[in-house]
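Chapter summary example.
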Amino acid sequence: MAVRVKICGITRAEDLQAACKAGADALGFVFYARSPRHLEIAQAAALVAQLPPFVQTVGLFVDAEPAFVEAVLKAVPLDLLQFHGSEAPEQCRHHGRPYLKAVRMREGTDLVKYCADFDDARALLLDAYVPGVPGGTGERFDWDLIPTGLSLPIVLSGGLAPDNVAQAVTAVRPWAVDVSSGVESAPGIKDAAKVAAFIENARCAANTFKP
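The structure predicted for these 211 residues follows.
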């Protein structure tokens, strides 16, 4: 089993290059003004223009107006949209682009229903529930809340870091893992050594699985 790795919250060219060099499959760019990793459209466009081939670009939005999402799409060639707010299925589908739907996990979260409601999503991205914060908190949730046999792939997020990503991959066996604050030296500033260790540890854990 392979596991894919997304490094989210890229704000600097040097962090982009370090993540790509370390083997990241996807990079996330945040279009949410209240995040310390927020980018203006022009900043994101300049960063994405520096990407090497075969690295996916993911744009993160939180209850954004459709016109704003369209403005981003006109300037930034995003491969995937990630909706991290309370967006309804119709809002996620509105732009005609592949998308991920983030789910803030807590006791009682019905992932089977999410899979049914967002059945055309490429995956569900699971993050920790923290009241009043849409994500990126660095908090971990109880992985036992994830049922087996879901109809959509799972992207695991929330509180992951180089020292626990192998445990996460082994326990959950997600399609991909997503990290932001767990590989930073400061909000929005990635630590190249942590990024490399995160990717290596995730991949090494996945390589131990039997076919």
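To summarize the output: The longest strand covers residues 99-105.
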